[in-house]
Amino acid sequence: MILATIKSPKTAPKFKLRLKKLSVILGVMGAVVTGNPVKAAENIFLTYGPFKLTLRVESLELFAEENRVNQNLAFYFRRTTEEQQAEFREALTKRADIDPVLLSRFFNTEIGEDILTRFGNYITIERDGNGKHGLRAAIVQAAFDPEEGLTLLNVIRKFPTNIQLRGEELLAFSQLVERVVTATITFTDVMAKLSSQEAQTETPVDFSQLPDLRQPGSFRTEKTVMNLNDTTRNRRFYTIIYKPQNLTSNNTPVIIFSHGLASRPEDFESLAQHLASYGFVIALPQHPGSDYQQVQAFIAGFSRQIFDPNEFINRPLDISYVIDELQRLNSSEFEGRLDLENVGVGGHSFGGYAALAVAGAEIDFDHLQKDCDNQFGGLNTSLLLQCRALNLPRQVYNFKDPRVKAVFASNPVNSSIFGPQGLGKIQIPVGFGSGNFDPATPAVYEQVRSFVWLTTPDKYLGLAEGQAHVDFSQLDAGITQVIDSVPQLTLPSPELLQSYRNAMGVAFFKVHLSQNPQYRPYLSASYAAYLSQNEPFRLFLISNASRPGLDQAIANFIARHGRLVRE
C-alpha cells in the first residue's frame, strides 16, 4: 500500500492505508506455536497515556458476519465512510492461503523472530508485555484452522489474551510511515531536479546519431559453466561465464556479478549476455547458503534458516576466488587475454553488499548495532537481513580486493552494515542503482543517504521510477495476481527497466573499467533523460557534482519533516 500511495498520494485515504497495512502484516507473517491457546481475546484495548478505550471482539464478529454495527463499534466508525467500512470488513475476512507449516518454520528463523518482536511492540498483551508470542500463536492457529483459515478476524479471535494496542507507539509508527512516503516522493522530485540541472551543464550530444547502448553490441557471445571448489573454505559452487566468441583483445575486461538473496546466477544471464556483446567477459557465481537453493532447502525443512549469516563473509570471498580461478585458467581457457588486474564487480541487493565489500567497504558493527536496536528501523526492511551480521564475531573484516577497479551495485543492501565510515573507505568508482518503489531496500534508506557518504570522486546514483527491487516477470503467478489486484498501482514493464540497466551498465564499465573515453557522454544525466523520453517511468542519474545539492535537500527535509528514524 505504500507503493500505491507513492504513485497517487492524494487518492488513498489514510484510514484505508492503515487498515490494509495491518491486514497485510497479520495476513502474511508466519508463526510458530504448539497446542491451543488457553483463552481467546475478548477485548481489544487501545491505550493512550492515561486513557483506555475498549473494542469488543464480538463487535467485530457481528460486523464481519452480519454487516451490523453495534454501539461499541459505532464509536470507532464515526469519521469513516461506507466505502471505508466495507473495505475494513473485507480486510477482516479476507483469507490468506499460506502453508501453516511453512509459517511455523519461518517464525523459527531469526528474521521471523525479529518481525514478531518489532510488531509485538505495538500489539501487546495486557500489562504492556511484548505481544510476539501471542502473535505467533494466533497467526499459526488461524492458519491451521481448516474452516476460516488465516484471516485478520480469526487471528484476533485466537490471540491467547486480550489485545492491547499502544496508542502512542502506533501513532509514532504511523507518522513515520507517512514521513517515509513523503521522503520517497520528495527525493524522487529531488533526483529529477538535480539530474535536469546536471544535464543542462553537460555538452549537448545528439544521442540519436550514436550507437544505442540498449541494443546488443557487435560481439557474438557464448556461455560456459565452471564448477569451482574452494578447498580452504570447503565451498563448492558453480559460475556461469559469458564471453565474446572471439577474444581479440589482449586486455579483455572482466566483470563479476553477484546475485541477490534467494536468487540465482541464471536470473542475470540477460544482463551478462548484453555486457558480453560489448566485449566484456562476465562471471556469474552462485552463492550457496544465500541463494535460491538455500531457500528451497528451508521450505522443504532441510534448513532452519533462510540464509547463513556467514554469507556476509563468504560472498565477497566467492568473488575474489572467482578472480583467482580466472587467473589460473587464463592461459589454458582464455588464451591469456583476460585483464585480471582491472576487474569490475556488479551486484544486486545482497550482491550489492558483496560488491561494495570487495571495493573496500568495511563492516561498522557499532553503526549496525545502533540501527538494529532502533525498533522503528523496521521501516527499513533491509535491516531484517543486515542485522543478521551481528551474529558474526566482532572483528575487522577487510575484503578489499586490489584487482577490483570499479563497482556498480543495484538496490544494494549497505547503509546500516557499512555506515559512513565503512563506505568512506572505498576509493574506486562506484555506481548505485535504485528504485522509488523498492520495498526491500528502500532508496531513501539504502541508496540516497549512502551516496552522500561515499568519498570517492567518481560516484553515480541512478533512480528508476517504478522500479521495485525485483523483476516481476520472474515472479510466480500468485504474486503477480496480488500485484495486479492493487488499485492505482502501475508498474513499468520489465523490458523498460532492463533497457535502462543494460545501457547504463555498458556506459559505466566502458568508462571506468575499459577506460574508453568514447563512452563518457553516455554516463550522464543527459543520456538518462534521452533514454526516458516519452516514457511514463523515467530514469534519473546524478554524479558527484550533485552531492552538495543532495546534501542540502536532505538537510531541508530533516528540518521540515524530521529524520526517517526515531531517535
TrEMBL record:
Organism per entry = Gloeothece citriformis (strain PCC 7424) (Cyanothece sp. (strain PCC 7424))
Q: GO annotations under biological process?
A: lipid catabolic process
Q: Which residues form a coiled coil?
A: none
Record flagged with keyword Phosphoprotein: no
Q: Does the keyword Hydrolase apply?
A: yes
Q: Name one GO molecular function term.
A: 1-alkyl-2-acetylglycerophosphocholine esterase activity
**Name by which UniProt lists this protein:** DUF1400 domain-containing protein
InterPro entries associated with the record: AB_hydrolase_fold, Chlorophyllase-like, DUF1400
Top-rank taxon, per record: Bacteria
Q: Specify the DUF1400 domain's residue ranges.
A: 40-164
UniProt keywords (A-Z) are: Hydrolase, Lipid degradation, Lipid metabolism
